[in-house]
């Protein structure tokens, strides 16, 4: 049985992509939470690979970051390479 602390490569890759874009935009998790209406603790869990985002969450984050949702996915794909 898998340890509950095991995080999937995919979730970690998305988290790194999200954190990279957030930092490029010079936003804190609190600011991103405010602009996206996504809870700050959930943003932290996403960035740490603990949660999988829904499509609606990805689009809300992308809008708040002023990027296309595809930019988050492309960042995720780069992290997986």
TrEMBL record:
Keywords of the record: DNA-binding
CDD domains reported in the protein's UniProt record: HTH_XRE
Domain HTH cro/C1-type span(s) in chain numbering: 18-72
InterPro entries xref list: Cro/C1-type_HTH, Lambda_DNA-bd_dom_sf, TransReg_Diox_bact_type
GO molecular function, one term: DNA binding
Pfam families, A to Z: HTH_3 (PF01381)
GO annotation, cellular component aspect: cytosol
Record-given protein name: DNA-binding protein
Organism of this sequence: Paenibacillus solani
Lineage: Bacteria, Bacillati, Bacillota, Bacilli, Bacillales
């Amino acid at each position: 049985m898998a340890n509950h602390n095991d995080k999937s490569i995919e979730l970690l890759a998305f988290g790194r992509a999200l954190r990279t874009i957030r930092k490029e935009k010079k936003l804190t998790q609190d600011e991103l939470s405010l602009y996206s209406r996504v809870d700050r603790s959930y943003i932290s869990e996403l960035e740490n690979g603990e949660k999988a985002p829904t499509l609606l969450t990805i689009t809300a984050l992308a809008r708040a970051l002023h990027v296309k949702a595809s930019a988050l996915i492309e960042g995720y794909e780069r992290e997986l390479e």
